[in-house]
Amino acid sequence: MLTTYRLTEHHTAGGMSRFLSHLSELQPEMFAEISPELARELGVKNGDYICIVTLRGAIEARALVSRRIRPVHLNGKTVHQVGLPYHFGTSGLVRGGAANDLLSISGEPNVTIMEAKAAACNIVPGRLPRGAAFEEWINKHVPTGGPANLHPEQPPLDTAKGGENPPGGHGKEEKE
Amino acid sequence: MIGEGTKSTNQRRHSYVQEHVEVGFFTDPTVCIGCKACEVACKEWNHVPDDGFVWSGNSYDNTGHLGASTWRHVMFVEQDRQKGNQIVGSHSLGNGDGEDPFRWIFLSDVCKHCEDAGCLEACPTGAIVRTEVGSVLVQNDVCNGCGYCVVSCPFGVIDRRPKPLPDAGGAFKCTFCYDRQKSGLVPACAKVCPTESIVFGRLDDLRARATHRVQELHEHGYDDAQLYDPRETSVGGIHAFFLILGEPEAYGLPPKPQVPTIYLKSAWTAAFATAIAAIIATLLAFAFFS
Amino acid sequence: MPDESRLDQLREEAWQKGAVTGRGVDIAGGPIPRKLATASPSGGGPGYYGQPVVKPPVWTWEIPVYFFVGGFGGMSAVIALAAAIFHHVDLVHTAMWVAAIAAILSPLLLILDLGRPHLFINMLRVFKPQSAMSMGAWILTGFGACVVPGLIALELHVHQVFGGTVDQLLRVAAGVLMFGSAFFGMLLATYTGVLIGATAIPAWFLHRTLLPIHFGTAGLGSAAALLELLGHRIAALNFIGFYAAGIETVLLIWLSLDKHGAADRAIHEHRSGWLIRIGEIFNGPLALILRFFGLVPFAAISFLIGALVSRFGWIAVGKVSGSDPESVFAAERY
Amino acid sequence: MPGLGTSFGRGGATTAQQDLANADCILIEGSSMAEAHPVGFRWVMKAKERGATIIHVDPRFSRTSALADIWVPLRAGTDIAFLGGLVRHLIENNLFFREYVVPYTNASCILSDEYRDPEGNGDGYFSGWNEEKRAYEGDSWLYKGGDLSRPERDLTLQHPQCVFQKLKRHFSRYTPEMVEKICGIPPELFHKVADALVAASGPKKTAAVCYAVGWTQHSKGVQIIRAAAILQLLLGNIGRPGGGILALRGHASIQGSTDIPTLYDILPGYLTMPHKGDQTLQQYLDTYTKKTGLWSGYPKYMVSTLKAYYGKRATAKNDFGYSWLPKLTGNHSFFEFLYDMLDGKMEGMFLMGQNPAVGAPNSRLQRKALSKLKWLVVRDMVEIESANFWRESPEIDRGELKAEDIETEVFFFPAAGHAEKEGAFTNTQRLLQWREKAVDPPGDCRSEAWFMHQLALRLIAKAKASDDSIDEPLRALDWWYPEDELGDPKTEAVLTEINGWYTDPVAGVGDSSGNESVVFGIDREGNPHHGKQVNGFAELKADGSTASGCWIYSGVLGRDGVNKANSRKSKDYLGHGWGFAWPGDRRIIYNRASARPDGSPWSERKKLVWWDWDSDKWTGIDVPGFVKGKPPDFEPEVGAEGLDAIPGDAPFTLHEDGLGWLFVPKGLQDGPLPTHFEPLESPVSNELYSHNTNPPEHWIGTRHRAMQSFHLC
User: Fold this and answer.
1) Of the candidates D713, D585, D689, which has an alpha carbon nearest to the alpha carbon of residue D117?
2) What count of other Cβ atoms lies within 10 Å of the Cβ of residue B28?
3) Are D442 and D421 spatial neighbours (Cβ–Cβ below 8 Å)?
4) Fewer CB atoms inside 10 A, N or C side of chain D?
5) Which of C251, C194, C244, C249 is nearest to C224 (CA)?
């Protein structure tokens, strides 16, 4: 599961911070916070590039491996969490993937706000291919196969049909 | 009673420069939130340029160390130890001997403005001076960039600014916002510190406050809280001192800093001995082998 | 405002190339990953993420070369004085020329290394005994002030440009100035050891007594070797050569035995350690052996190479040691 | 914010950040306050130094957690389960603050017999679900008899249909074990938090709750906030010093931009935007005016707003120009017109202070939508991604979009920075602070006010030149604002209008300094424009004799002519004298609750506002949020209306019954009580109900869902 947050060093979409050197140098690159457990599972080291993929798209980020984020254990099932700061984009002094590329548009019934703080995702170690190669790559890695809501105590309903399962069982999502 | 203890200490104007009062910084990581406002305020006020956009992977710290273009630097220390009685997740519940403790400490580092300052002693041009308030100041227009202060600082604070940054070639470090202080203002970093982790004030007041704070923390379970103010070494105490949790090494602070001038005596003795030996050897050579 | 102009510069670059390529900026999806910072979570690396505790020296090649030039220049003046006392007129002449050239080269090298060369004169704003750099500046000034007029006086006297009283005065002046040259010269050759010995760099200050001995002796040996190469193959210089190489050999043994663990590992490990060892072997045992077998020119060349290499070695040691937090902790706990 | 609005009455933080220093326990959840609100966190640290327990609940050990006493890691999106667990813990163990809960909340109110909760069948639906519309019809949630103003109450809380019993039943399954299953929080940690909160509750102690968009940006965000409101009401922490719920806004002046909204469905001061069905002003007012409580003044607020919009042209005869107001025909939120953009139904857009190309969810789709516009105006300080998406977006890089195929014409207007313009800024605690302009903006950079003002002048001139009836609303606008030499409108004149005035112009008012009680009394043509300012919303009238741009801000620039948003002399720790907090410069709202029902303070330690028997009025440190002379033992007469119907011991005067709502009988779309649902995309299924996600969700199961997949249609 991914969750998003803001950093003190940047302001929202970064329009007022990514263009200022004094703020940019404090957080100069997009990163994703992952737990040592997940890093081990994925085989990535601190500072390696990883790609975060959802149905909407994919971004790459540097893995910031830290005990500050921990997997949650629910009934014996482990749910890994990935922390993604907002703020980055393609312009400015420092650039990086926009976490918003990954989030879905949804509407809370009272105020039609989107759900930005929790979503399922897939993680692929390595860098994001550029150019046309991206299309093929994301088709391969987009989360598929798992049922919308995998109960911790139930076996996956229909895993045979879809593509590959996301590594480590974090991030199962339906695809309509 | 409501509203108690909410007065701030860093807001008032002062005339320390005019009255020649020794001042200092007391930096307390137990209230620091790692917002880096001090770093930014320092750079803004003093026109310090950025020194590169490099992501370090070292927690949230992407500035690394104090240097010519980083005069305040917030450290992000991640340790597998418990902080006070803090409960972190399911671990270290209740008692202090948690099986899997973790803590994250922020500490804003700065030039220490030593009582006996290595850089000041080393400076061959007189560019580095001591001010009325006891701080150590580099006069940018005098410094010719010989680089000797760089190796003479036991804390690795001062550095020569490389090209192509503005004002390259000179040695730079925290000025203690001497210009602000002359106008009765508090240094920029202390002024912006939202939680008063950086406290600016009279040195004697601050030392008393710091001692009291350490005591208070000990009472609240922070067993490893201590003051970092090396007064027993040749540095003779620092004007910007810190409260630290655990050992100074974890913060990149030297455990027993010495001002390099204490090495002069033995070094010069060796030098004179060598020189005299050389003269004697030469004279002997010519006397006996001509 | 300086920072604004830099920002403009970056913007301009971003506009033209579509990306700021300098210093650590990556575009999303960029093809070449930058060199990774190697740090592990939870405070990897000694101290604070392996960050240096003290700052390594910023000095570049000019400084070791200056140490070398100042070393042989200063000691050359000493030899000149001794030669004058014992009436080796030709040698006095050459030695003074060597010293004078060194006296001109040295400040040039120093100025070249300054961050702000145009402010070099500020060195003479203060006289500060507690600053080895300040003392060095005055020593070098004194040296230059003695050697150059001394050489002029000597030349005028030798060529008998003036006659009578003037020439007599020139002779006295040359004598006094040569005496001064020798005085400042011996300090010039040794103070550099104090300069780097009295710093916060662990591998340096731990060897603060060895350094002046090494630098001074290497200077003396270099001066003798240079004069020998310039044609003065006399027994006195050969003796000095033996003396210097001998001392250097002792120093090599001392250095090899006097280990301080992590505190001065820059001397015993890394490439900086190798540089020092090679230098010391060249101007120590190798020069000694060559000289022993009468291969004087080879011995001289070996010594000069050794003296130069070891100066570079010591600066390299400073850089390695200053960047190594553990060496600082070890030195202070030591 | 309906979460706070429906629970307490006002959609704003109930307290001030300074007041956090008085808390004995602070629960921060759904926010990394130290990171996103570092300045306010100062007061949290002050509280900690004074011995308060700081609890941070977050999936991530953030800078806030680093300073907290307890960090509780929970799975993202499971906040209701955790808070619900706390609510259950309080109720089951009888640990709630009964003396507070019984008189001040609707715990004792009897509910309609038709009400059913989701616990019975475990499917997650309350009564009133309409499967076809995929929405609730909420009539069964009302109090017994349907009247909200005089509910039937059982002060013993024993009646099976009373709110308390319903609440107890609703949360009965949210046990610590269930919390562990859902959130991943072990029971011993859960109890640590519960104990800390309980220890900080009662007459002598208070606890505060801080949240930010970590609660809001969920498919059930409002209900998460509701859960916190229930918790705080049960602990008796609302309206008291060191208590309350602090909504930390995700943006600069976000509070301000909901008070004077940039939202499509409300008018300034939380007045409802008229819908298509609200044909006449009378119809509209009948629908939204409440019989009792502060909202009984709805017509006054609405008519005054219309008078501010249309000036002299708004008369009783033409319904004060009500017909000129646009009427809602459906959902016009940002996401909805995103789809319109994609479908090519929307031609142009103004973007100010927003950067959807990277700052809005599914930004790939956002960029795609932008590329379908015919024109786009971007006002920003730098060339942000939304202005150059056609040139350097990842889609261009990947060849999915080609710059030469994108026909969007982008107009980039350089904007002034905050030091280059003046105006008021409403911060997270409802505090208006005025900013002076430090320097003129460089080059062609201009403020937002300049842009809107100049645009309005040009549009109005165009409308006046035409006789098309569709331009009538533009022609009717009273655009009177004086300008400075840059062409910026005088923003203090705008603030004066927001504050409100008597509409009768005062003759002979020369300039702003001429008559203290009338500032900026002259319009653009040099004619007297309005009369003296009002001193607060109590003076507003529904007959057109007053105008006010935003009733809740009324009082910010009253008859003394002082711009209180610009005052900088703080008199007490709550900051009175520094800026202006709406409503009426009250820093802690509902502060009647800081006194016992009999009017005396709960304790000496937690004294804030109390009834002074000598002078027969409410007094204290804060501005009392109550009718000043209404004694604590006041009993309203039967049939009383407006504020007169609120008893002397009912602090939540915006509600018809004057009570804090544990149970929301009216005003929410997704249930009267918070219920745990999984996030829309969750790797686990709902432990509590057979329905996984919040049932009434916009756009789910529609074509939009498909559009959100990676393939950009």
Assistant:
1) D689
2) 24
3) no
4) C
5) C244
CA distance D321 to D340: 29
- CB-CB contact of C54 with C200 (8 Å): yes
Residue C326 identity: E
For D62-72, how does the pLDDT look when each residue is reduced to its tens digit (9 = 90+)? Answer: 999 999 999 99
Do residues D62 and D73 lie in contact, with contact meaning Cβ atoms separated by under 8 Å?
no
Which chain A residue has its CA at the smallest distance from D35's CA? A8
What whole-number distance in Å separates Cα of residue D630 and Cα of residue D647? 9
| β-bridge partners, D135 | D130
Distance CA D657, CA D647 (A): 9
CA C151 → CA C145, C155, C156, C166, D94, distances in Å? 10, 6, 8, 16, 103
């077998």: which residue's tokens?
Answer: C293
Residues from chain A contacting residue B46 (CB–CB below 8 Å): none
Residue D713 CA from chain centroid, whole number: 36
CB D240 within 8 A of CB D206: yes
Other CB atoms within 10 Å distance of the CB of residue D247: 29
Domain encompassing residue A91: 2-169
Q: What DSSP string runs through B166-204?
A: TTTTSEE---TTHHHHHTTPPPHHHHH-TT--EEEEEHH
Write out the two tokens for D514: 């001429």
Structure confidence by residue, pLDDT tens digits, B139-198: 999 999 999 999 999 999 999 999 888 899 999 999 999 999 999 999 999 999 999 999
Token digits of residue C217:
């002796």
Q: Are the beta carbons of A109 and D670 closer than 8 angstroms?
A: yes
- Neighbouring subunits of B (3+ Cβ pairs under 8 A): A, C, D
Instruction: Tell me, rounded to whole angstroms, the distance of Cα C330 from its chain centroid.
Output: 26
- Write the DSSP assignment of B194-256 as a string of letters: TT--EEEEEHHHHHHHHHHHHHHHHHTT-TTEEEE---SSTT--BSEEEEEES-GGGGT--SS
Domains of chain B, by residue range, sit at 16-258, 259-290
Rounded CA separation D218/A113 (Å) = 7
What span, in angstroms and rounded, lies between the C-alpha atoms of D248 and C272? 56
Q: What is the CATH number of the domain that holds A131?
A: 2.40.40.20
Q: Which chain B residues are within 8 Å of D40, Cβ to Cβ?
A: 194
Helix axes C62-85, C210-229, angle to 10 degrees: 70
The yes/no answer on whether domain C57-198 falls in CATH 1.20.1630.10 is: yes
Residues of chain D found within 8 Å of residue C17, distances taken between Cβ atoms: none
Boundaries of every domain in chain C: 57-198, 201-218+231-334
Q: What is the DSSP letter of D150?
A: S
Instruction: Tell me whether residue D24 is exposed, middle or buried, using C-beta atoms within 10 angstroms of its C-beta: 0 to 12, 13 to 18, 19 or more.
Output: buried
The beta-carbon neighbor of A93 closest among C3, C20, C36 is C20
The answer to whether position A41 is within a domain reads yes
Q: Which two tokens stand for residue C319?
A: 């850089």
Cα dihedral across residues D496, D499, D503, D509: positive or negative: negative
Q: Cβ of B50 and A24 within 8 Å? A: yes
Confirm whether A174 is domain-assigned: no
**Residues D355/D356/D359/D364 CA torsion (nearest 10 deg):** -140
Residue D699: its chain A contacts at CB < 8 A? Answer: 105-107
Alpha-carbon span D244 to B252, nearest angstrom: 42
Q: In this predicted complex, what is the ipTM?
A: 0.88
pLDDT tens readout for residues C9-64: 655 665 566 555 444 333 333 333 333 333 333 345 788 999 999 999 999 999 99
The shortest C-alpha distance from A118 to chain C (Å) reads 23
Check: CB of residue C80 under 8 Å from CB of residue C72: no
Architecture of domain B16-258: 2-Layer Sandwich (3.30)
